[in-house]
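Supplementary notes (optional reading)

For those who missed the lab, this is the record we used. Protein: Guanine deaminase. Length: 429 residues.
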Amino acid sequence: MSDITLHLGQTLWFTDNPMTEGPDAARFDPRGAIAVQDGHVLARGTADDLRRDHPQAAVEDHGQALILPGFIDAHVHYPQTAMIASWGKRLIDWLNTYTFPEEMRFGDADYAAEIAGRYLDLALAHGTTTMCSYCTIHPQSVEAYFNAAQARGMRVLGGKTCMDRNAPDGLRDTAQSAYDDSKALLARWHGQGRASYVITPRFSPTSTPDQLSALGALWAEHPDCLMQTHLSEQTDEIAWVRGIYPQARDYLDTYEAHGLLGANGVYGHAIHLEPRERDRLREVGAALVHCPTSNTFIGSGLFDMAGLVAEGQRVGLATDTGGGSSFSMLRTMAAAYEVAQLRGTALHPSALLWLATEGSARSLRIADRVGNLAPGTEADFITLDLGSTPAIAQRSRRAADIWEAVFPTIMMGDDRAVSGVWVMGQRMG
């Protein structure tokens, strides 16, 4: 008996980046299939071809559902799960009013485990199979996150958030403890199963120069790791940075001067960038992560997607849970479309789907493993019902092509549109 399973349905993948190459970079098959074996994609093609090539394979026919890679959320704060959609604050007040009090609870390992499990289950229900998360300053928050992901077989990235100033008592570490804790957690988790450790200074205002230098030194010791932080999210934040780093040329320079700028850097938000910052980010090949629901919810500004892509920046997409107001990458794609419209660009559905899958995988340097349906990659995939609600169904029935069929789900879909989720070939929901 074959241990191969064929998944039949409508299939969509990319041969190139549709952000630069247009919709022709997509490959759509209205009756396609993927073959899965031992948790990996064995082959992809037409349903007829794969059935002929693997006559003994088990078959799961998903009908008209669209088979896609699992969504990849490139910037989240899993500890903010319980406080998502908190009302009415700008970034700095929002952190002090909602975020920091909630994050202080993660010194309790049981609470951290509860929220980590809750977050991952919510993410899976919305079709997200991989994410890159900030944890809290507490090592147990990192243990909880990676343990919960390991129990579900998920590929995840994350790290201990480091802060040694401008945060409440009980939510600060030191330059030395940030280095020591991060190094120990990295040794424990990086490359363990499907886990990747990410060096994680929250942002320059909550780290002293000594702490940034310590984390820069750790990154230099482990250059294969990613480093994630925040950059130029709000204008008042930038003014704050300017005040406490008066010697810096700009916000990015507060990282660059301490060894925290590089090709494996992942910089969240990046809305209000100076020309020098844009040039340096492109030169080193760093990744920028667009968090549209967060940027509109907290009033941060409008990300320059078209301009950044045109100048050669690497860009991913993220919910920014819980500054973002949804766990759904569908809602995030819709918000990205709306933000781009306000800047004069209509992002094509192919670009939105690419950003939420392979684009985010590229930003996290894991596109060789997830984010597409290429043979040899890990079999993390979802099925989308393109008629999940009456409103969506009545619009998609009028579609002339796949893009008209899927766009209503991007704009109006939620977890009801996610009809199935597989992690390493195992059905999760």
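If you only remember one thing from this example: Residues 109-125 form the longest helix (17 residues).
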